[in-house]
Amino acid sequence: DLDGFKQVNERLGHPIGDRVITRVGFRLRTAAPDHFLARFGGDEFAMIVDGDDTEKLLEIVGRLIEAVDTPAQFGESVAQVGLAAGMAIRGVHGNTADALMRAADLALLSAKRRHGSNAVMFDASQAEAAAARAALESSVEAALRSGSIEMMFQPVINAQRGSLMALELRPMVRSDSGMIDAEQVLQIITQRGRSEGLHKLALPAALSTVASHPAPVALWYHVVEADLANPAFAVQVLAQLAAHNLAPSRLILAVAEADLMTVEPGNAEVIRQLRKQGVRLAIDDFGDGVSHLSRLSHFPIDIIALGPTLLSSLAHDPAVAGIVAGAAGVGRALDMQVVAKGVASADIMTALRDIGVTLVAGDFLSPPVAGDRTAAAVSVALASLGGGQSRPLLN
């Protein structure tokens, strides 16, 4: 399966995308001419390799990866994609065509979860993970249909002022195996293309919580690339803000770095429309993916949120501290606020203070709580920073 092909289609257009598929097929056939190659559809290929030599198989897959990784020129345009491969061996991972394809497909899913071009051999744990994933997806889908997703909120604190900046919506689902956390819920809903259904349920409920909060705070609300290309979403957002008598500045739409980097500036009309009305835009999990810093200036971004993956080793890794300081510097240079999310310990909080990042959120301050407990959670968070419960909650 090709890595980055979606971005080629969006950036260069489907005619170039079709030519990329043709070029990739030629390169794969040329790199391993003695083996049977087929295209399944889209950007997915399969190959049958004769023999039982695992080292030979790995060498062949290495050649395929190298062949696909080379950039391709189409007139003035340059396209580059990667290759993720899943491998299965007859007699080891199955004996029928269906069993082998199922095993290779599960290995492919594991390969695609890793960054860059790579190949993964099937093992039984992948089947177990797939079954567990299917159970999670079923629980989230059922909760979305029944309207039983639990709306939880996590405070975003201004540690310097001792005040509350925003409440981040963290939708969770209760299942037979326990609570499904917000990251998994949002990921599953996005991958299944059900974000529109979530917005109909979650946006009114979340805005209602923010409107009734004792302090005039903002709602930090997650959106995906598809939302930012949908004019109907902008209409829905503005209508809900008006219905709850909230100024547009009381809403922060947070889009993951990886999603925002695939939105072409010419296709960002929804972003510009909402931003013109006063809605703020945050780039979420900044530093967890591959940042194209030159593209940040093309979007009306108000806030950069540093992701928990980046922050996890901040307190004990000077290199990471340098990266965080650099990211904070980029934000300040572009006149953006910088928020550190996923603060999990006092050591991380201290390191952020030393760098000068004072807008923070994470379980160290407060875990996600129900809407009617947010005021108490904010008081606890401020007390943990030495702000005390008597400090006023400011915007």
What does this structure look like?
Mean pLDDT is 87; it is low at 387-395. Helix 15 links the parallel strand 15 and strand 16 (359-361). The protein has helices at 5-12, 14-31, 54-69, 97-112, 124-146, 182-191, 195-212, 225-228, 231-243, 257-260, 269-277, 293-296, 308-311, 318-333, 346-355, 374-384; strands at 2-3, 36-41, 44-48, 72-74, 77-79, 82-87, 118-121, 150-158, 163-175, 178-180, 218-223, 251-256, 280-286, 303-306, 337-341, 359-361, 369-370. It contains 16 helices and 17 strands. The N and C termini lie far apart (47 Å). The longest helix is centred in the middle third of the chain and has 23 residues, at 124-146. The protein is globular, with a radius of gyration of 23 Å. By secondary structure, it is an alpha/beta fold. It has an eight-stranded mixed β-barrel, surrounded by six helices. Helix content is 47%, strand content 22%. Helix 1 runs antiparallel to helix 2 and helix 9 runs parallel beside helix 11 (269-277).
